[in-house]
Design brief:
mainly beta; Jelly Rolls; Immunoglobulin-like; 4 domains; six-stranded antiparallel β-sheet; five-stranded mixed β-sheet; 39 strands
């Protein structure tokens, strides 16, 4: 490409081994495209997404496709032919960036300047995820700005990085590639991709991955707009959709008498295809209506509370399954009229997300975090329903424009989900209590405190358990005496208060930084069993954990000999160590002063001995 970059290119070294942390799909769901030349190394296997190391990549060869003549049919990753074809314009240049991946290491670029245009036609219908790898370099500024359009849906611009992060061997969205999700391809449809210069004066393209995440399965989408009676009916796509004819359910805040409703319902919501669903909706505290000037019929109008507070939306009788929930919630101007949205189902909160409080909320391109927020994999079980709460944002007013419910699957995970509370460090003083929090779906929770796994005969976790000492609770759910899910553990540790004159430094030295959790650190404790308490060892500056380092007292036992005596008589005290000794040794000789004499042999060293007393001959 540019000669002054050759030296940098040759000097570029990737020190780490190339690794892939790819999201797994089936090979018949993926179309991979590599943009290179006749002498380029061919890519196989996964990139940011993939199935396995044998994934097939279609090579768009710039040497034989300089003018973008349509290729032969694109093949799936299992090498089976698809009906799709590709056309590429304004990408005759070819160069490398030194990256170890064969696909990403080579890139095409325009001959002079301008944009690279890619058109893919006759894609099998469905909902796709589209990944575009677009970076030259070095230098790091050789990124690209990528635009995608499918039918009437405009997915806007995404950028790869202008920092050195593109050099990483870990695939990260926004670094080496950009991703467009929920791209709906209608029958006989396709998409167009445009790569535009951004940090540098040229545009670049390395590869494309098309992942068919969902085949068309009717019906799967419920759309709702929240508005007033004078607003026109919304039709077609928003951030997601199936076709330009998608039906939208219309909640009107006006009542028949010409006033407005603080609470209202919509029964038998329709799918976007026009088919009736069993689902119903209720909404509370949204009697106000206004417009924000946005050109879209749904997003341009919004409802809000008249007296402040939250807007509460409940959906009931939704078909069981896993949903993606898109909530549109922005007033304005001013830009600060955003909202904080929380979605809950089966007692689980999927978090709180905010729409934008910056001017980008008014851009005509739909983007998560701007005009709407997205909650994925929301489980809805029979009779569980779905709750949506719109809270005030920066302007202290909650708003709601619309919502979309995309049913991804008809199954839902009903594995018990619970935790032991309080959780976290589990440190307490004196006493605490442990309870379970979550949803059991008809299960029984049993627990142990001895470190073993609970069984069907372990105590049942019903009322809160009183905790007064160090313990680890292990809990497990059971259905029909069979374990369900995983063991949940929580440790509790008692903290003690010391106010006994022993310094924290001394206790830390011998009992560690968390001595306040150790019952052996009490002043009256004797952890080494040497007879000296911690208080005595502290005063004596000895080690309370070493029995050979205590405060010692030596005690000696000596014999005491007493006999009846005559005053003035001289007596001899004799001793021998063994009864077999022939001779006695004289120990003491003295004159009696009263009728009873006593002698203590304090000089004896042998613990065994025999004594006799006799008048002196």
């Amino acid at each position: 490409m540019i000669l002054k970059y050759i030296k940098k290119l040759l000097a570029l070294v990737f020190c780490s081994q190339f690794t892939v942390t790819a999201q797994q799909y089936q090979q018949d769901q993926i179309i991979n495209i590599q943009f290179a030349g006749s002498g380029s190394s061919l890519k196989s296997g996964t990139a940011a997404v993939g199935a396995n190391t044998t994934d097939h990549w279609n090579l768009h060869n710039r040497d034989s496709q300089l003018l973008g003549t349509p290729n032969n049919r694109l093949h799936w990753a299992n090498q089976q032919a698809s009906p799709a074809s590709i056309t590429v314009n304004n990408a005759p240049g070819l160069w490398g960036n030194g990256h170890p991946d064969p696909m990403f290491g080579a890139y095409v670029y325009p001959a002079n300047a301008g944009d690279i245009s890619v058109s893919i036609t006759n894609l099998p219908p469905g909902i796709y995820r589209v990944l575009v790898y677009a970076h030259g370099g070095p230098p790091d500024e050789q990124n690209s700005k990528v635009y995608l359009q499918s039918g009437n849906a405009d997915f806007g611009w995404r950028r790869t990085t202008t920092t050195s992060a593109w050099r990483s061997t870990e695939w990260v969205e926004g670094n080496q590639f950009v991703a467009f999700t929920n791209v709906t391809i209608a029958p006989n449809g396709g998409l167009s991709i445009q790569c535009k210069p951004d940090g540098a004066s040229q545009s670049f393209l390395n590869g494309i991955q098309l992942v068919r995440e969902q085949s068309p399965t009717p019906p799967n989408l419920i759309n709702v707009q929240f508005t007033q009676i004078t607003s026109p009916n919304r039709v077609g796509l928003a951030a997601i959709g199936n076709s330009t004819n998608d039906l939208w359910n219309k909640y009107i805040r006006d009542d028949p008498a010409g006033g407005y409703r603080n609470f209202g319902t919509l029964s038998n919501l329709f799918w976007s295809t026009g088919e009736s669903s069993p689902a119903s909706l209720s909404i509370a505290n949204a009697p106000g209506a206004w417009g924000n000037g946005f050109p879209d019929t749904m997003f341009g109008a919004y409802l809000y509370p008249l007296g402040g507070g939250n807007i509460d939306i409940n959906l009931s009788s939704l078909p069981t399954g896993t949903y993606d929930v898109l909530v549109y919630a922005h007033g304005g101007p001013p830009d600060s009229q955003n909202s904080l949205i929380e979605v809950s189902s089966l007692g689980d909160s999927y978090g709180i997300k905010a729409t934008s409080a910056a001017p980008d909320w008014s851009l005509p391109t739909w983007q998560n975090g701007r005009q709407y927020v997205l909650f994925t994999n929301v489980s809805v079980a029979p009779s569980s329903g779905l709750t949506i709460v719109s809270r005030p944002g920066q302007a202290n007013v909650a708003v709601i424009n619309g919502l979309q419910l995309l049913r991804r699957s008809s199954s839902v995970d009903l594995t018990p989900r619970f935790s032991i509370v309080p959780n976290g460090s589990g440190i307490f003083t004196n006493s605490t209590s442990a309870a379970i929090e979550g949803f059991l779906y008809g299960s029984t929770v049993r627990y142990t405190t001895d470190g073993t796994t609970p069984t069907s005969s372990s105590p049942q976790f019903t009322n809160p358990i009183s905790i007064t000492t160090n313990v680890t609770l292990r809990a497990l759910a059971f259905q029909n005496n069979a374990p369900v899910g995983s063991v949940v553990s929580q440790s509790f540790r008692r903290a003690y208060v010391f106010n006994d004159g022993i310094t924290a430094e001394w206790r830390t030295r011998y009992f560690g930084a968390e001595y306040w959790l150790n019952i052996n650190a009490f002043a009256a404790a004797d952890p080494d069993g040497d007879g000296s308490t911690n208080a005595q060892e502290f005063i004596n500056n000895t080690d309370p954990t070493d029995p050979n380092s205590g405060f010692r007292i030596n005690l000696t036992l000596v014999p005491r000999i007493a006999w009846r005596s005559t005053t003035g008589t001289v007596y001899q005290v004799l001793r021998k160590d063994s009864p077999t000794d022939r001779d006695w040794s004289l120990v003491r000789e003295f004159s009696a002063t009263n009728s009873e004499s006593v002698f203590v042999d304090s000089a004896v060293t042998n613990p065994h001995g025999f004594y006799t007393v006799r008048p002196k001959p």
